[in-house]
Amino acid sequence: MLAETVIAGLLLASSAVAAPAPDPLTFIKRAANPGVVIQKCSSPGMLALAYDDGPYQYTSTLVDILDKAGAKATFFWTGTLYGCIYNQAAAVKKTYASGHQIASHSWTHGHMGSMSESQIRSEMTKVEDALVNLIGKKPLYMRPPYLETGGSFLPTMKSMNYKVITNDVDAGDWNNKTPQQSQQSFQQAGTSGNGHIPLMHETYSGTVNTLTPWLINWAKQNNLKLVTVAECLGDAGGMYQAGNFTGNGKNTC
Ligand SMILES: *[C@@H]1O[C@H](CO)[C@@H](O)[C@H](O)[C@H]1NC(C)=O
Ligand SMILES: [Zn+2]
């Protein structure tokens, strides 16, 4: 996708300017910084399955498939895109209780690259309020809808302390790719180098019921550990803001 290409180019250009003698830890140090775009894991030997756009009708099934395989994954959820998040309260609680990472994908799935700072903040705090009401936690990770990171977006994420995740492999399920075509994208990306953080959507039955079992098997055959995005960045314990929160029950869809 164009946006990713531009981001990758910017990262390359800025590191070339900033570090005449390249520091091999540069990427990892950056990955720890809020408001900086992260596309892949900071170590090899892992795969961070990451699903956007839920919670939805397949969430519970997906958690069962992952749990049966001993896999951990990351869920980038919105408040309203596929119905109200509160309508999926049981699936939300089940996902959290199973130890998967719950992260934000904004409240309405809008174009945050062209929103004002106050609109962007509202998109993020509404998801926080809902997750506090449902699981007592506020996420520290997010993926922007449409992978849009321009305008006021990144500075606002930095000031809100959010780690911004995009992707380095695109399953293309959002663009009518079949699970078989998505599998080819993973095979082309390969299993060497730092772990992948793919773009996938839990809102397609093919992604949940066909692609995910294939990926679990692919990871097993290639000795890749299936981990959360936080773990693949060396921060397994840092999925959420510190502390437990009590909801006020006021946030609604
Ligand atoms: C938050 O809640 C969990 C689960 O009840 C508990 O284990 C943990 O100690 C709590 N953390 C804080 C900071 O209160
Ligand atoms: Zn999305």
Describe this protein's structure:
The chain is α/β, with parallel strands linked by helices and 253 residues long. The chain has helices at 2-18, 26-31, 59-68, 89-97, 117-135, 153-159, 179-189, 205-221, 229-232, and strands at 37-38, 40-44, 46-47, 50-52, 74-77, 101-104, 141-142, 163-165, 169-170, 194-196, 198-201, 225-226. The chain has a single domain (22-232), classed as Alpha-Beta Barrel (TIM Barrel). Helix 3 packs parallel to helix 8. The longest helix is centred in the middle third of the chain and has 19 residues, at 117-135. The radius of gyration is 17 Å and the shape is globular. A 5-stranded parallel β-sheet has the order 6-5-4-11-9. A 3-stranded parallel β-sheet has the order 1-8-7, covered by helices on one side. The protein has a two-stranded antiparallel sheet with strand order 2-10.
Main traits of this protein?
253 residues; binds zinc ion; binds 2-acetamido-2-deoxy-beta-D-glucopyranose; five-stranded parallel beta sheet; alpha/beta; globular; 40% helix; three-stranded parallel beta sheet; 12 strands; disordered N terminus; TIM Barrel
CATH topology: TIM Barrel
The CATH class label is Alpha Beta
Number of DSSP E strands: 12
Helix content: 25-40%
Globally, the shape reads globular
Would you identify the CATH H-level superfamily?
Glycoside hydrolase/deacetylase
Count of DSSP-assigned helices: 9
Bound ligands, each once: 2-acetamido-2-deoxy-beta-D-glucopyranose, zinc ion
Percent of residues in beta strands:
5-15%
Radius of gyration: 17 Å
CATH architecture field: Alpha-Beta Barrel
Strand order of the largest sheet: 6-5-4-11-9
Q: Average pLDDT value?
A: 90
Biggest sheet character = 5 strands, parallel
